[in-house]
Specification:
two-stranded antiparallel ribbon, 387 residues, globular, alpha/beta, 13 helices
Amino acid sequence: MEVFAVPHELRGKVSIAGIGYAGLGSSPGFSSLELLAQATKVALVDSGLKLTDIDGLCCATFYHFFPTLTVAEYLGIRPTWSNADMVGGSSFQSYVLQAAAAIHAGLCRNVLIAYGSNARSSRDISGLIETPVFEQMYKPPIPLAGYAMAAARHMHVYGTTRRQLAAVAVAARDWARINPDAGIQDALDLDDVATAPMIADPLSKYDCCLVSDGGGALILTSTATARDLRQPPVVVLGGGAAHWHREISQMPDLTVTAATESGRRAYEMAGVGPGDVDVVQLYDAFTINTILFLEDLGFCRKGEGGPFVSDGKIAPGGDLPVNTNGGGLSFVHPGMYGLFCLGEAAIQLRRQAGKRQVAEAEIAVSHGNGGTLSHQCTTVLGSLASL
């Protein structure tokens, strides 16, 4: 993949100053807004800012047609700038890019990016089941069927095996076992994945993400302001987004995603390439996602994702640490996971990840995926030393 040498004007201007989680796993009795608000409170304390300092808002939920209006009213804030662009699980990476532009343009000073879901305890995932028009006649399980088709195609074209897909799930579980906040920490091996009940051929139970509750929040501000706050700034170095289709039947090639385009733009803005990245957080709703995104973001060649993950390279102790919190497969997946990719990347760059800390991590990629491999958004983050 090409490495670009001319950084964008947004590079390094804005930083993540606060991170908050709440109610991860199972939180019966709490609404999505309550979990979102609890995470916001944690993020504010983490940053040292007050709720009255927030004048920008980006958020999404499964359940609200006007999420920023609803959340602003619930929190009691009056933003001067807000954004609720819904592109699925990658919305949060997109919010970071748009918030950075808004702060840099002077439209607001401090942006709250927040999410909440009680998908597990309420069993309400109605926001996920809008069946695309041309697929309704087949009554497929959405979005599972589309990802299964992509996995089957990758196996057919490139010879990717079931055990290589299973290696992604095992690596995620190995990371989760050293993350005290992970939802599942039982040991998992390749045979467990390969012999688990089939959900949609070729994906078994362990190839599929969790369904959990949880709230998450990030606070972004100018890097100049973040330097004087409570936590080490996590600098937004670059971002890029792209989408090529909505329905899986309209995807030009089931083995190539728009991450090829979003990643290139993010690297260009950041002035780095895949070889400069120390830690990677990918939206792993299914095991095939990790393989596709490693290829499309330039960490290995197209078609080589299966062998790339099969020797422990992305697991603890491997050459390329991927999804160090356990990912959507073993950490948490409350309907949309993108914000948690960003949170883990920031925690790693702060050097606050405990036993799962990647030594000397300075540059991280957080990649979000929305729809059925539809919308892709890549964010490159760094420590102050990366500027």
